């Protein structure tokens, strides 16, 4: 899967939590990524964040940082 698709999907997950406070949103996004994303997908999005994380929304960036 391309990195741009992973960024899009992660940001879509983040949009689901937009009505939550930041901490709840970050927790929810991270939990979703842990439970439902294949380990290869998680590794790729973490690598993308380490390379600068272009395109990731702020709460998604924080959630991905918790995966590393």
TrEMBL record:
Entry-linked InterPro entries: Formate_DH_dsu
Name used for this protein in its record: Formate dehydrogenase delta subunit
């Amino acid at each position: 899967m391309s990195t741009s698709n992973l960024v899009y999907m992660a940001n879509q997950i983040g949009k689901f939590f937009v009505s939550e406070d930041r901490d709840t949103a970050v927790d929810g996004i991270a939990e979703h990524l842990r439970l439902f994303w294949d380990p290869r997908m998680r590794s790729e999005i973490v690598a993308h964040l380490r390379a600068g994380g272009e395109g990731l929304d702020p709460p998604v960036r924080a959630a991905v940082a918790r995966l590393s």
